[in-house]
Amino acid sequence: MITAEHVGYAYRGNVRTVSDLSFHIEKGEFVALLGENGAGKTTAVKLIAGLLRPTEGRMTVNGLDTAKTRVSERAKQVGFLFQNPDRQICENTVRDEIAFGLRAVWGKKETERIRERTDELLEVFGFRGDEDPFSLSRGQRQQVALTSTLAPRPAVLLLDEPTTGLDYRECTRIMEFIRRLNETEGTTVVMVCHDMEIVLDYARRALVMAGGHLLDDGPVKEIFRDAPLLEKASLLPPQIVQIAGRLGGEFAGADDAQTLSSLIAETAKKKGERA
Amino acid sequence: MTDLFQVVPGNSPLHRMNPVTKIVLTLAVSVAAFLTDNLFVLLFLLAFDLMIGVVGGVTRKAFSIFKGLLKVSVFLFILQALFVRRGNRLFWIVTDEGLLTAAAVVLRLLVVCLPLALIMTVTQPSDIANSLVQVLHLPYAYAFTLTTAIRFIPQFMEEMSGIMEAQTARGVEFDTKNAAKKLGMLLPLCVPLLISSVRRTGATATAAKARGFELRTRQSGYKRYGFGAVDLMGFLVSAALIAGAALIR
Ligand SMILES: Nc1ncnc2c1ncn2[C@@H]1O[C@H](COP(=O)(O)OP(=O)(O)O)[C@@H](O)[C@H]1O
Ligand SMILES: [Mg+2]
What we know:
The complex is a heterodimer of chains A (275) and B (249).
Chain A: E1 2-10, E2 16-25, E3 30-34, H1 41-49, E4 56-61, E5 64-65, H2 71-77, E6 78-81, H3 94-106, H4 111-125, H5 138-150, E7 156-160, H6 168-184, E8 188-192, H7 196-202, E9 205-210, E10 213-219, H8 220-225, H9 227-232, H10 239-248, H11 260-274
Parallel strand pairs in A: 3-8, 3-9, 6-7, 7-8
Antiparallel strand pairs in A: 1-2, 1-4, 4-5, 9-10
Chain B: H1 13-16, H2 19-35, H3 39-55, H4 59-83, E1 89-91, E2 94-95, H5 96-122, H6 125-136, H7 140-169, H8 179-186, H9 190-210, H10 229-248
Antiparallel strand pairs in B: 1-2
Bound molecules: adenosine-5'-diphosphate and magnesium ion.
């Protein structure tokens, strides 16, 4: 689905921000992009989206070279949720906002189809449709932006820090929706995220970046257990993984636990076996 | 484009000059440019502008601003040349007087804009504000408004390019050749730009008030803006420019 071959990128007049990035992401994967601020994560997702064109190497999405694909063609394939929803929203009602993205991708003539899809999404997300997006809360604006991003059913969904600044409920709501999309429609998801708990809960694979380089690429669970790697990328694993790791010596097998309840169950079992 | 209004630090005579002197110098160049119709004087003033850049240690920037202005100038020159009907016809509908007038207009534009942009690149906006308050007794609220407006320009441009990027991601084709179509695409973007600007202005005002904006007086700044030898030079040059332009015409 997404293939990066030795991709490098330098902003005009600057040194390389991203170098020698190579990875392959299959259709339907849920990948987290990890790394400290300035590691080049946003640059990397913009490269996937084709918003930036590689200055070295090649990036292909769905078999199309991003450097040679037209904006409209690419927008049909790839949805991009920006860190700041306010840059995306430009219509006066939520309904118009969702329709705006659809019109840009499907064309103005598809009025009937656009109306149907808009109605459907309004219902799913529980919007009336006549709300003014700019008077909504930050979390709701993020939801509006997400809704209009995924409206044209992109095969790839790129999320740049989708949960930053959201409260717990808003965050869960958005993430659950994305998970459903990933599981039922097979949408490929690439997500930049600083919240390791969310990464553990939702993503299956992680790419770790530091200083513009790809440090590691593997299943989230394995990445989180690799202490030296996390150290190098200035990341802290989720508490549950830390606790499980500590307990691992005494209760072998417990370090597989991903949730608190499974950790308790696992350690209780081991304790029972020993007694 | 975004680095156009970014201040280049340094210790050149221009950096050391009192901001008020710099403003006087800029005004003097502008006044001189409007006093004269003589192309040679205008050319001399243009050379003087570039000299300011050299003295300020921002030669490269001066030339890049010059190049940027040149594009606008070519457009303006052609327009002027086509629309002036007086004088003797040289070819097609272009007259000799048309060409001369066009040249004067364009040179004036360059002469006036260049030092303004250059002064901005060697002076912190806060220094301009504070010196205006201290030396010219301008109320701080006005000086603050002025410099805040300048300070917001790069942020504004960054915001605009961010918005355009976000809209491109949604499939809006800015790379169209059709100018009318492009304008139609840009209009909706004014909404997010306006919203973010209003929000930012509100936030800045609140932050300024929270830090005692209203308590500020002319004496509040810790930095004193005195006048030295460079300033004397600046005033002399300003006077010479105006006098010269007025005499030669
Ligand atoms: N438009 C730009 N122009 C120049 N440098 C940039 C630009 N955007 C980002 N950078 C630089 O590239 C580096 C990586 O940025 P970014 O990809 O945003 O990192 P992250 O998203 O991981 O925090 C940073 O050092 C940043 O300063
Ligand atoms: Mg980022």
